[in-house]
Structure formats: structure tokens, C-alpha cells
Specification:
With 952 residues, the protein is of the alpha/beta class. It has 31 helices and 36 strands. A hairpin with a 2-residue loop joins strand 23 and strand 24.
Length: 952
Amino acid sequence: MKPEREPATNGKTTPEVTAATVLEIVQQLIRELRPTAADGVAVTLDSSLERELGFDSLSRVELLERLERAFDVRLTEQLLATAETPRDLLRAMHQAEARSPASATTGKPQSLEAVETLPTQARTLVEVLEWHTHTHPQRPHISLYNDAGTVEEITYAALYEEATAVAAGLRGRDLQPRQTVALMLPTSRAFFAGFYGILLAGGIPVPIYPPTRPSQLEDHLRRQAGILTNAQATMLITVPEARALARLLRPQVETLRHVLTVAELATTKGGETRPVVQEHDLAFLQYTSGSTGNPKGVMLTHANLLANIRAMTQSTHASSQDVFVSWLPLYHDMGLIGAWLGSLYHAFHLVLMSPLTFLARPERWLWAIHTHGGTISGGPNFGYELCLRRIDDRDLEGLDLSSWRIAFNGAEPISPETIRRFYERFAPYGFRPEAMTPVYGLAEGSLGLAFTPPGRGAHIDRIKREPFLRAGRAIPAAQNDSETLAFVACGQPLLGHQLRIVDDSGYEVPERRVGRLEFCGPSATRGYFRNPEATRQLFRGTWLDSGDLAYIAEGEVYITGRVKDLIIRAGRNLYPHELEEAVGNIPGIRKGCVAVFGSTDPVSETERLVVLAETRESDKESLADLRRQIDTLAVELIGTPPDDIVLAPPHTVLKTSSGKIRRSASRERYERGDIGKRHTAVWRQVARLAVAGVLPQLRRYGRTLATLGYTAYAWAMFAGLGIPTWLLIAILPRRSWCQTVARPVTRLMLRLAGIPLRVQGLEQLQREPSSILVTNHASYVDVIVLMAAFPGDVSYVAKRELDAHWLTRVILRRLGTVFVERFETQRSVEDAEQVLQVVQQGRVVVFFPEGTFGREPGLRPFRMGAFVVAMQAGVPIIPVAIRGTRSILRAGQWLLHRGPVHITIGEPCVPHGVDWAAAIELRATTRAFILQYCGEPSLDTPADPGVFAPSE
């Protein structure tokens, strides 16, 4: 036991840390939170803080604060997530250090030198990091606070080095370009290395939030399983402690092959070849808040993100000498794009702490701004509210916030009252009202869409209540009007972006008329990943539907609510957030834990107004009194009483990972009758998850067996037909006879393998009896399908290496194949003359100008050999696009998959001229056609200067 000691703050004797004193503090807090039910709650050292005592995250914060004050100690923020019982708290108390009050640091914060230029030519996030690493490798990029309050520094060079090691580990585990990798990590050094490691390996990061407490395990893992399945994640990078839990996801996510840590990846060697990342490739998938049964992964490209980052910086007048202080979670777009990637691009100094640190001690956020001279910081409205409610005046002595010039406020409804009180509370510490900067954005727009002009402060619009609720008209109210509503201006659209307000018919409405907010611009997503229905609902032609209701006045946008949350009752438009905030202020109701929504009456089919509020009260009289207060308040605010008031225990109202009310999900829970059900024990949750994964695992095994069976059958069939065909071709005296045999055999092979072949445009070959066919190359199956598709005398250009083995040499020579050298320049020129002679003889020659193929999809650059020969021979190029063969047999694999193959033959392309420029134009035209029909993206890597690109 720790001895009694005299705290420096109040001079009172600190009680000894014993089980009895800890239990008494827990019991006292329960009495305050649940005055009518506290006597019936038996508190023991092994009582569950959540299930039995009803402590949620905010209640835990209050409990830890009381323990710290009572015993004059400093507890770690991790205790918020790890403590499950009072015994855990007691153990932590014995290991805690003495508490020291917050105080100002001496001297001015060190400022970094200005960066004169920025990576304006960078097209991808990869190029941005490479530019900074090359330009100023040792420049501090991130100052990362840990739980103990100490800071570790991350330079651009360190980030690049650590990310490169992770990328090697991913490639070593066979990560293919454009495959998705989930990142379930807290704010940590590992997150940055993991995110950029995925990008450097050519993958697509999918940030998801990590698990918190074991009691939330089932809901957390079920939500993540849906996201991982939709994202088709091949790997999951997480913390060591979460690996055992994360493995529960594998039976439910068919594509998930590995569950790894950053440390494991960094010690694994992989290939040195780095895939090329292009500006229109996906940079990451941002799953929207509340993604559940129908996950919506916003597809954001490198071009989207860089356009948004550059536009936001222009609106804020930011420079490389700004200091960005953030506690925002990195799995959320505001923290990931606004704080980290924005700082990375513009060489801001980013000072970062975990959300858990902020939740436990919000004063640390403000002190970080003071210590580092923070100029830009902010968060959702609840962050400012938490500072008002949780920070004690004694923790602010010496605080200086005068450096804070942009305090952005967004991501959820902005409360005018919170803004006013924050001004008043922190003005004595240097906070300037003009620093408050309300903003608007959403993941579908990459992040930001509208910003308040810097240095102006928040503008609050007071409007008449009745016209707004009745007709959606935002009429300014008189100064003495008591029946008003207030909305905060979120600024003007970012440069290059547009906003508009439309009615239900899609027509744009005039100013001060509420309607749907739509937007467009270079930051706009192209849709949701593997969710065509949600994507279809998102777009209105070239405009995207934000899902928000708003009005515009004097060029600024005012957000009034979500479309799906609007309740229409008796001809009135009811907005939930105002009533939720008011109900949350009633004593006995848990603030921030109220959901107001509409629910269709199954009998009358009219919309009913439902108020779902959490309370710790259980006495019938107390509950009846709360219902009366809510009923009276609703009539006063919106002119109508609720149809149903549900008072539920803690943790009933569902929230997103960023703390926003999930009204739709809460409504579904209400309509299912799940309100008030008790939490399931953790072991039962784990068991249920394990059982739930059995059937998917059996299906996976069944599909694997089917694939293996099909592969064995197909290879046996190919051998059964191929061996006698090889022998027959080897003895036939004429090339035409050999090709006459090859075509029906290859067609029979495809038919027996269950591979349907569809050929479109065969008439183009009849128009040009002598021509060069140029086609993409995706698989060894390509030659088989081309032989099955092309009639007549067709020869192929193949690499000379195939002529070195007797098995391939015999059959390819008999079929009229022309072998060419790929690497030796002199021999390559001689082979070009040989190919030219073959074309001049009137034969049709097939080129594979890519020269090779790999497992990853994509059309590689074309070499020039086919196009030079076409000009010299005076024959046209006929483009041929093959689609589907890569899925049947990928490079480096022996497993075969059944699937259709489409061959599209284009019109002949005649060279316009005989010079090199004409050949390049001919190549561009041919490649454009193949790219259009091959069903794969373009891989615009620098082309090999060699002449030929023969078949593999």
C-alpha cells in the first residue's frame, strides 16, 4: 500500500489507497448518476464497470478524475479502455505516479525554417513523400505524444524508411497492386509506417478503427467483418494485442489471408520492384461513419486528395511555418486527410496525440497548442464542449492560446451556444473569437467543401422558427423575436468546387430556401467501392448528393440537418438535433445520449415521433417525471408531443466511432424491439462469432476443393488433347495443315474446360488478308484463345527463349512462329528484317507489344516493333483486345478458374506517314482501342526502348 501523503494542490491529507476507499468513490459516483437505484447496486472489486455498474466512456473519465484527485496520482489514459473492474483500478492506483499540475513551459516554441517550394508537380501521395524525403529528409514531420506525455519525433526520412520496410514485407507476402489492406491501428508510429507502406507496395489502405473494450467485442468485430468483406481486404495490419481477436474475422472474410503487425512486416524481406502508382489510382477507401450491413467505402484517388488538400490550404492561407496540433483519430477523414496528409503535403509541423488522451484530459490538447505554438487545430463540436465541461481552472494557469489562428469546427452539427461559451471561457487565455472557423465537408468530397474565411470568426444566422419548420424558409428574425432558430455559417465553397441547393424535383432553389445540398469538383469521389446501388443514389448527373439539408445566404452555406433524419409530421419538418440537445440537458438524462427519429406506424402508416433517451434512473416515479418533462419540452420546442418516449439504460443509443448519433441504426433497434436487452458475456460473444464463422469457412473449403478438382480435370484434359496434337503437328509436312489441326483442338479444349469464347469483329480480318494483329498479353491462355478464334494462316511473334527448348520449339516452328531477340540490339534488328519478310509474304502476324505479363491487372506500355514493321511493309495494324484470360490463369500460378473470354477486334489502323512520329501515333491509336475493351487499367510505366515485345 502507498503511504499517506500531503498533496501539493490543496494541503489536505490524502487517504490511503485501499479497496474500501476505491469502492467508496465508485459507490459515490453511482449515487450521483443513479440516485434512485444506487442502494440496490452491489459494488465489489470484481463488478463489471460497464455491464453491472453502467459506466460508459464519459463516466469512466469522471471516475478516473475523482480517483486522481482523491489520491493525488496521475493515471494513464489507457486505463479508460483496459479497466474492466474496480480491482483493475485498485491495481493501477498502486502503480500510479504522484500527480503534478499542468504548467506552462518556459521560452518560445522552436519554429522550423520556411519551405520555399512545395511538391506542386506531385501527382500521388507517394510522390509527395518522396519529394519531401529528397528535399529535406531530416525536417521534423510529426511530434507524437505518448501516454506518458513524452514526445517522439518522426522525420520525413524516418517515415519513408519505415514505410519502405513495411512495403517489402507486404510484397514478400504476395500483395498484388491494387489489392486492399486493412489498417486497424490506434494513433501511433506504426499507423504512419503501415499506411504509407501499403501505398509503396502498390496496395490500397483501408483504415478502420481499433477495438476498445472487450465488452464491445461482438458489435465491433461484426461491423468490421462487413467492411472487410466489402473491401475484399487481403491482409489486416493491427496491434499485437488485437491479433487473437482479429483472427475471429478470418472465417467470415473470404479474402483475408494474413493478420499481421507492422513489426512483423518490417522484418520480412520482399521484392525490390515497386509497382507504379498513378494519380487516378485509389489512394485509400474511407468507410463512412455508421457503415454496417451495407458498408459504403468512399473511393478516393490520389488526384482527389491532392486537389482537396491544395484547395483547403488556399482557403486557410496556410504556409509551411504553420503548426497543426491534432487529437483527431487517424481512421477518420478529418484526422487522416485534414491533419496528417495536409501537414505532410505542406510541410507543417504536426503535433499529434491520441483521441484517448484528449478524452481523458482535454487540457492536454490546449497545452500542446501552447507548448508548440500551434496555429491550426480543431475538431467536431463535441471537442469544444468537452473542454468546457471537463477542464478545471487550475489546469489552465499560465496557458497561452494567442498563437491559435484557425480553430476549425466541423464534422457534426455546430452549436452556436458552444461557440459562444468557448469564446467566453478561453478569451482570458489568449483565444481570439475570430479564430473560430466553422467548416463543412464529407468523405465523398475527400474532406473539405466549404470554409469560413480565415480571421472572420463564426457567423450565426438567427431565423424565424415557424416559417422554417412549416415551409423550409430561413427568414431572418428580429432582434426581439423569441421564437427563433440559430444556424452557423460554414463558409464558401473551396476554389474549383461548387455547391447548390435543390428541391425534391432536382431544381435549384433560391437563397434562404432549405433543400438538398449537392456538390461537384475535382475532390469528388467516383462512388462507393463494390456498392453500385449506393453509387447510383449518390449521383445526380455530374452532381453528387451530400445527404444534407442546407440553405445558402449571401454565398455561404448553412447546414440544417441530414435528409434521412428529417421527420415530417402534420405538415411540419422536424429536425432531431435541437430536441436531442434540449432533452439531454434534463437532469437524469445522459447528455449526448438522446436519439430523436421518425418511425412508421404499422397501422396508420404515418410517421411517429420517437424520443429515445438514456438514463440511469430505474424508479417508476422518476421515470414518469422524466417522461413528463420530455413531453412538455417537445411541445415547447416543436409544437407537438412525441408519440413515444423510450427511457433506456446506458449504451442503448448507438453512435459512430467519432461520437455522432446513429439515428437510423437506433430506429432499427427500436423497431426490432431490442431496446433494454442485457449485454452478452464476452465469452458468449466470442463463441457466437466463432460459430458464425463455421459455415463461411465450410463454404470456403468447398470452393477450394472445387477449384482444385477443376484444375486437376482441366490440366488432365489439356494433356490428353495436347500430347497427341503435339505428335500430329510434329509429323505433318505443311504449316497450313498444322494450323488446321490446331484450331479445332484449341476450340475443343476451351469447350471442355467450360470457358465460353466470344469473338466480336472477325469481319475486320477478312477486309485485310495481310496485316499485323496487335493484342494485349495477360496470360499463357492468350495464345490458346487466339488460335481458337482466328481463322486462316496466322503466325505469332515469340521470344527467342522459347526456341531453346525442344518441347516448345517443335510445335511453335511447325505453326510458323517467328522468334525474336528481346535484349540484344543487333540480333533484334536482324529479327525485325525476318518479321518484315514474313509480313511481305502476305501472312497475318500477331504481336504482343507489351512484351510480358504479370499477375497484377493493367495494360503495360507498348514497344515499337510492330508499328515500325507495319510502316515498312505498308500494311495496317488491327487492334485486338483480350478480356478475361488473366482471371483464368494468372502468371506464377497453376490453379485454373473457369470464366468467360471476350475478344474484340477493331477496325484496321493505317499509318499516316513513314516517320517515327507516325509510328508513335499508330501505337497510341492501337493502345487506346485495346485499353477501352480489355477491361483493365493503364499502367503507364516508362516504356522499354527495345524494338520487340514478343509473346511469353
